[in-house]
Amino acid sequence: MTWEQVFNLGYKSYARVMNKFAERMGREKLLNMLQETASEVVAERTKALLPLVPRRDLATFALFLKNEPVYRHALVFNIVEESAAVFEIHVSQCLWAKAFRAQNAGDIGYAAICHADYVGSTTYNPKLELRRTKTLMQGDDYCNHRWVMGA
Description:
This protein is an alpha+beta fold and 151 residues long. The chain has one domain: Muramoyl-pentapeptide Carboxypeptidase, domain 2 (2-Layer Sandwich), CATH 3.30.1380.20. It has helices at 3-25, 27-49, 58-67, 69-74, 95-102, 106-114, 117-124; strands at 75-82, 86-94, 128-131, 143-149. A 4-stranded antiparallel beta sheet has the order 1-2-4-3. Strand 1 and strand 2 form a beta hairpin. Helix 2 (27-49) runs parallel beside helix 6.
């Protein structure tokens, strides 16, 4: 199977189930619950990985993002800026966004997948801030992830 087929198999089905939950419980309630739960899970997962991280600086963070196998196969991105204080990428293709948007569930995908990027960044390092104003999941033409390491 290709990576896209794997994502379609898992995430399109997940999106359909979440759409059904939204019909039953209300979309806003579901979206809030997904954001909170996904953020908790990402924070827990990030905390568990921190003992394996040699340094919690931006260079190490960027190296992980550039080399992590799932990201390398699920995303097409270009590096816009890379320095000791800033790492910015623009994502032009995303298999998560493609799968969720195919099910008219971009808002669900954002809540379950994208929103937790913020807590993942600050859990990695409390001085690391993610600034993002566009996402493919929300219908934009690209995602603009800009991580800034504060003093």
